[in-house]
Amino acid sequence: MHFKRSFASIALGLLSFAALASVSQAHASLLRPCVRGSPKVDICPSSGPADYDLNSPIGTHDSKNLPLCKHTEEQGQRTIVRAGGKIETSYSVGAAHGGGHCQWALSYDKGKTWVVVKTLLRDCLKGVSNGGAYSVTVPIPKTAPNGKATFMWLWNNAIGNREIYSNCADIEIRGGSNGGKLAGMPLLIANYGSDSLYIGEFPTADQDDKSEAFNKRKAITITIPKN
């Protein structure tokens, strides 16, 4: 009987692990640079507690289920990037939902204010098969001051439930100025609670994808104090 119970426990454990693996493959998440909550110890050996549901959305137009970044606690490991350089980002894609809109942004004040450094409308993740590889090069402005910063990826999907996805990585910018100003577009947040912009499905070019809202953003400038 003891053997049978042990075998059953092992079987249940394997099923639970399989379920976690299945969940983690759903939807999509930022993979590189080392992202908060990453279960990939080969990429993020010290990213904190593993989130096996990292690919799930943070909310829909009806609700805000999780905060922006999904995980707010900073990790011990920071990716070093250069002002005027670039970040080679890659993604875990379980379901690309027809692509959609992506924004990449920087914050120097722990997520209170964001400056968008790249926007990709409609074609972000588009055509990627489930489990397929996907990467995007994101530039870091030459004017980005030195210091610890948060790097965000934000995605509004084109097909399916009206969702929003977000992951963040902790980075340190070097090779720039000690303090200064950073200009760029503000973060546009959609399908994240009923008070946010609503973007309906847009699988075809003739459907409104609210791209005009992105194009009408007015540039902002933030000031980063000297260290």
TrEMBL record:
Keyword annotations of the record: Signal
Gene3D superfamilies, alphabetized: 2.70.50.70
Residues spanning the signal sequence: 1-26
Official protein name in the record: Chitin-binding type-4 domain-containing protein
UniProt lineage: Eukaryota, Fungi, Fungi incertae sedis, Mucoromycota, Mortierellomycotina
